[in-house]
Amino acid sequence: MSAQTAPGLSVAATATLAGGASRPAVLHTKRRTPAQRVGAVAWWIAVVAVAVLTVFPLFWTLVTSLKPAGDILSGALDLIPRTVTLENYDRVLTEVPFGRYFANSMLLAVAGVVLNLFFGSLAGYAFAKLKFRGKRALFVTLLGSLMVPGIVTMVPSFLVLRAIPFAGGNNVVGQGGVGLLNTWWAIILPGAAGAFAVFFMRQFFSSIPDELGEAARIDGASEFRIFAQVYLPLAKAGAAVLAILTFQAGWNSFMWPLIVLNVQEMWTVQVGLASFVTDYATDYGPLMAGTVITSLPVLLLFVFAQRYIIEGVSHVNAR
Question: In 102-139, which positions are buried (b, 16+ CB within 10 angstroms) versus exposed (e)?
C-alpha cells in the first residue's frame, strides 16, 4: 500500500499500515495561554475564599460551643479548643426549656409549610391556568408586594391580629382584648399564603401544557380535581423546593415570634436563645451550643434536598 492516505482510513491508521508496526497516535491538545492560566488560578482562589468565609462562622460556633467558659473570652480566636467540654450543651438543655422551644419551632415551621404549599399552589394555579377579570393587575400587585420589606408590614399585621373580632376577649368590632396575639395563629396566618409562594408555583404551572387541563375538563373533571390530580403531581419539584424554603424561613424566624408571643412556654428556639443575652452580659457558651443544635435541622434538610433546590431554581430561571 502506498504512503498516501487510504480511502476511509484515518491518518493514524494509514501510518500504521505504511510503517508495518503499530505506533501510538500522538494527541495534540491546545495549550492554555498565560492569561487563561492566570484566570483559572484567580477563579480557584475566589472559590476557596468564598467557601472559607461561608464555613468559618459555623466552624467557629461549633468550636466555641465546646470550650469552657474561661477559654471562650481568653481564646476567642483559637480554632482548636484547649479543653473540650459538653458543659455548654448540658446548660442549654437544663437551664431553659429548650426541648419545648424546639417542639414549638417544629410545629410552627411544619404548619407554615403545609398552609403555604396549599394556598400558594392554589393561587399559582389560578394565575397560570385560569382566566378571570383583573388577573394581570392582581399579579402585578402581587409582584410589587415582594419589593416591600417585611419590617414595614409588621405594625399593620400586629394591629390586624389584635383586632380580630371574638378572639382573645374582643367584641364584635375587635376591641377589648388581645385578639390572636399569644396564639399559634399569630405566627401561622400571616405567612399562610406568601407572595413568593404564589409567584414560585405560578412559574411551574405555566410550564405545564394547557392541553392536559382541557382534556380533563372534557372528561368532566372539576377544576379542583384538575388542579389536585393533573397539575400538582407534575409540579412536585417546585412544591418540594417551596416546602424547603418555607421551612427554613419559619424555623429561623425571630422578630415576629418575639413580637406576638409573650408567653415563655410558646417561645421558639430563636427567641429562647435570646434569653442568654442580657443587658449586662452574654453567656456565649450556651448560646453557641444552642445555635449548633438549632442549625442541625436546617443543615440536614439542605444536605438531603439540595438537588431539589437546584432543580427548582434553574426551572424558574429558565422561564
Answer: bebbbebbebbbebbbebbbbbbbbbbbeeeeeeeeeb
